[in-house]
Amino acid sequence: MLIVEDNGPLRSAIARRVRAWGSHPLEAGTAHEANALLAASPDLLVVDLHLPDELAFGVIEAAALLWPKPICVAISGRASPEQAFRLAQLGVRALIEKPFSLDQLQQAVETAYREAPPLEVLIAACVGHVPLRKLQERLRSVMVHQALALSNGSRSETARLLAVSRQAIQQMLRGRVTPPRRGDNSDPPSK
Question: Which element (helix H / strand E) includes 136?
């Protein structure tokens, strides 16, 4: 887990709560520090939108390139509607307004881990822009690669996460399932 918050006392309070959950958080006070710590592949990113060196969009975009992709929860005392919309576009699972309680943060994190994000709106927005076959290929590719990353490459565990047989995973990996690239609407390259 990575906590990105420029307010030291708040960052420390969040870190203490996270340690009580049994996690060992990394801490950053700037976007620059956070980007350096992304190399540790955190499973969760709690990030303040307004950091001293820049807005956190770059950190969130960099985190979205990781495998496995971390869950992201943003916090802010002054996010504009446009910024909140952009956070949603980047896959941020919750935006918590400051001031907030640590219980509110914990609830948002637990909900993000427990519930899948609603896909209907995103899928509906693809109609007329992405052919159905291409959308299916991209969906399969993202899910397989996320499951492989979460399972450290174990095909049996990947199959369990996706509720399919190990043989189905083998077939997908022999087929055209390649790591997706963010924003790529083209056909995935063949192996």
Answer: helix 132-150
Predicted model pTM: 0.83
Domain spans of the chain? 2-114, 120-174
Do 48 and 76 contact (CB within 8 A), yes or no?
Answer: yes
Nearest 10 degrees: Cα torsion 38, 63, 68, 42: 40
Q: Residue 99, by phi and psi: left (phi above 0), alpha (psi -120 to 50) or beta? A: beta
Lowest mean pLDDT among 24-38, 41-55, 86-100, 170-184: 170-184
Reported as a single tens digit per residue, the pLDDT across 114-146 is 998 888 888 998 999 999 999 999 999 999 999
Structurally, at CATH architecture level, domain 2-114 sits in 3-Layer(aba) Sandwich (3.40)
The 10 Å Cβ neighbour count of residue 146 is 17
Torsional class of 62: left (φ above 0), alpha (ψ -120 to 50), beta (otherwise): alpha
